[in-house]
TrEMBL record, chain C:
It comes from candidate division TA06 bacterium DG_24. GO terms for molecular function: kinase activity. It comes from the Bacteria. Pfam families: DRTGG. This is Serine kinase. InterPro entries: DRTGG, Ser_kin/Pase_Hpr-like_N_sf. Residues 35-105 form the DRTGG domain. Gene3D superfamilies: HprK N-terminal domain-like (3.40.1390.20).
Length: 123, 309, 114
């Protein structure tokens, strides 16, 4: 199963690193794109990268609860100050890409990052 | 951390960390036409012992203090750096693991390596043995301070307490309608359980169930209380609110059923998945509700020990 | 690429709008926020979402989207299906999550930048 570092994610998505510039060596095993935290809470696996268009603090809370490696905001959305503060406190890297959700997921997938369905199916 | 642990930690880090994490990004370079006589001043002022030689954007060589001393010792005439530099430059890619740098430094005996971006082929930094050590120490310190936080974790609390039955109780107050602060209780509980040394998989289930329950209290009620009772066998989370109550509990349990207002949906919640998700995380779940007086949710999750017995 | 070809390649189950499967898909949009889809999706996009309530049909018709794919094994609500049949809006379902559906579409050449 292929995994990527956050540095790879940053490169592929031409993303800005908002929190966690020193944490880019962390590895993500799979990707998950969702704007519904309820779904993320129900489905996402640990060691995932969360791609979302939501930027409120609850994205970080969700990441914290689910042991998500990092959050990447799509569509050029920037997190609120409170979200940034909470992410710093919880040591959760935040990235931001100008790509839309579709493009961001597509690029990561073609670079070899699986989704949680395949990653789980193949064990 | 004891000594052995520290050594493995360093070995781990050399594989984990990348050249770009320790390299110096600000690189002092010289041109091939710069005179050797000027080199000493450049090295002295910048307090470096060598520099990559760059022509335009291209890396064409590298010149070191050793080269300079050799030139000085031979009492040769002044000449451009280009004539004395090493042309066959050994470089490293920015995304290579630190271990490659360590090996090259050792095997080739060079003091420094220019660092190149794999895609653009541009010079992006320089790495020396000193920078590697500095980077590792910095990283160890960060990891150590993270470790420090966990040092007072009471992993052995249940073994240390002598009693026939031991229970720990934590209580959290939840403020209704305060979306910003929603999740603070679940967060506090999660951190606490981790410090107690409880299996991370169990902690995760408790945290998710508590977070979902807390979110419900915040969205639908004026407030409530979360209490968590822990004994060696199980963790019981008890959530009580003074909200309007749920008229039809069975219906509320259906996946996708939701009475959430639009503002909650736009914030990424209220998709009618919360109660199902709580059930998914729980070993036992009891939900009772009286319209007009509030809702009571009890979630039980067994620990390894509790599952075994 | 025709919608019917996408249905085949991704093994999607069609729940409504079968008569429109011959239409062309010219791009893709993934989002669970209706306001975002209204503002940013384009005509001919295939829309990937978790949302199942009937507003999705109204949004998709308004922006003349090619079809809607519901992910994570979600099924459209009854009202959603009725509206979709009325508007002849193809709705397809899959067990895959958004990330993979999009990944596979992207590999088929469907792009998200327009």
């Amino acid at each position: 199963m292929k995994s990527m570092t956050l540095e790879d994610v940053r490169r592929v998505l031409e993303a800005e690193v908002i929190v966690g510039k020193d944490l880019l060596h962390r590895r993500v095993k799979m990707g998950c794109g969702s704007d519904l935290m309820s779904d993320v809470l129900a489905f996402i696996k640990p060691a995932s990268l969360l791609l979302t268009g939501l930027t409120n603090q609850q994205t970080v809370r969700t990441a914290e609860m689910q042991d998500i490696v990092a959050i990447c905001f799509v569509r050029g959305k920037k997190p609120t100050d409170e979200t940034v503060k909470l992410a710093q406190l919880k040591n959760i890297p935040l990235l931001a890409t100008r790509f839309r959700m579709f493009e961001a997921c597509g690029r990561l997938y073609t670079e070899g990052l699986p989704g949680d369905y395949e990653a789980t199916e193949s064990g | 951390m004891n000594r052995d642990e520290k050594i493995t930690k360093i070995q781990e880090l050399v594989y984990e960390m990348k050249v770009q994490e320790v390299m110096r990004r600000k690189v002092i370079t010289v041109g091939p036409t710069t005179q050797m006589s000027e080199l000493r001043e450049i090295l002295r002022v910048n307090r470096i012992s060598g520099a990559p030689v760059v022509e335009g954007d291209a890396l064409v060589g590298i010149i070191s203090l050793e080269d300079f001393i050799k030139w000085l010792a031979n009492r040769e005439d002044d000449c451009p750096i280009g004539a004395k530099m090493t042309r066959d430059v050994k470089t490293l890619y920015a995304d290579e693991p630190l271990v490659t740098a360590v090996n090259k430094l050792e095997q080739l005996g060079y003091g420094r390596f220019p660092v190149i971006d794999r895609e653009t082929n541009e010079l992006v930094g320089i790495i020396t043995a000193g920078l590697v050590i500095e980077g590792l120490l910095r990283k160890l310190e960060i990891d150590y301070s993270e470790e420090e936080i966990h040092r007072y974790r009471a992993s052995h609390i249940f073994e240390d307490i002598l009693a026939d039955r031991t229970k720990l109780l934590f209580e959290y107050d939840v403020v209704g309608q305060d979306f910003e602060r929603a999740g603070e209780s679940a967060s506090g509980l999660k951190t606490t359980l981790r410090r107690l040394g409880i299996d991370p998989r169990i902690v995760r289930r408790v945290a998710i169930a508590t977070y979902e329950a807390e979110m419900n209290v915040v969205v639908y009620t004026p407030g409530g209380k979360i209490s968590c009772e822990i004994d060696p066998e199980k963790i019981v989370v008890d959530v009580r609110d003074s909200g309007p109550g749920i008229p039809d509990v069975e219906k509320a349990m259906q996946p996708g059923y939701s009475t959430a207002p639009e503002w909650v949906r736009e914030l990424g919640f209220g998709a009618g998945m919360g109660l199902n998700n709580i059930q998914k995380c729980a070993d036992e779940m009891v939900l009772t509700s009286d319209v007009g007086s509030g809702t009571h949710l009890k979630v039980c999750i067994f620990t390894e020990q509790g599952r075994g017995s | 690429m025709k919608l019917s070809e996408i249905v085949d390649r991704l093994d999607l189950s069609v729940r409504s709008g079968k008569e429109k499967l011959g239409e062309d898909v010219t791009g893709g949009y993934a989002s669970d926020l209706l306001s975002d889809v209204i503002a940013n999706s384009n005509e001919g996009d295939i829309w990937i979402t978790l949302q199942i309530h009937q507003n999705i049909v109204a949004v998709a018709s308004m922006n003349k989207l090619a079809g809607i794919v519901l992910v994570n094994g979600r099924e459209p609500e009854e009202g959603t299906l009725e509206a979709a049949e009325q508007e002849a809006m193809p709705i397809m379902v899959t067990d895959m999550p958004t990330f993979e559906v999009v990944g596979k579409l992207y590999e088929l050449g469907i792009s998200g930048t327009r």
